[in-house]
Fold:
Amino acid sequence: MNALVDLYVAQPFWIWLAIGVLLLAIEAMLSTEWLLWPAVSAGIVAVLTAVGFRPGLAAEVAIFAVLTVIATVLSRRLVSKANPSGPDVNDRDSRLVGQRARVVEAFVGGRGRVFVSGAEWSAEIEGEAPPAGQDVVVDQVSGSLLKVRAQV
Structure:
């Protein structure tokens, strides 16, 4: 413990850098986005101490805390502007709703197969079923089953 205190007294930069790297490593493993900004804040405090600004441990911890809160709040605003609410671009299933699909296997008893978005899917339809080769519209995705309707 004395070695750590001696290192802090001699070069607080290394302590803050180690804290920042440790937080960044944990963030990289967990991908929570919550530890990124504390890691950046520790890096900023490390740079401040490296250039000679040494207000003492209590003040450095306070600077770290304030920077962490400010960075986290600003990042949440920035992320909400950059990623507006709506369907997830990576969620292929939700993007299927409203798309046209081609019937590849005729519907029998309300069940058939359709081709949409580069893949063939099991489908279910209510009412009059169009023949193979006709288009239908995807209304809902339920697991690997599409609920479709005849195109009007």
Q: What stands out?
A: The radius of gyration is 28 Å.
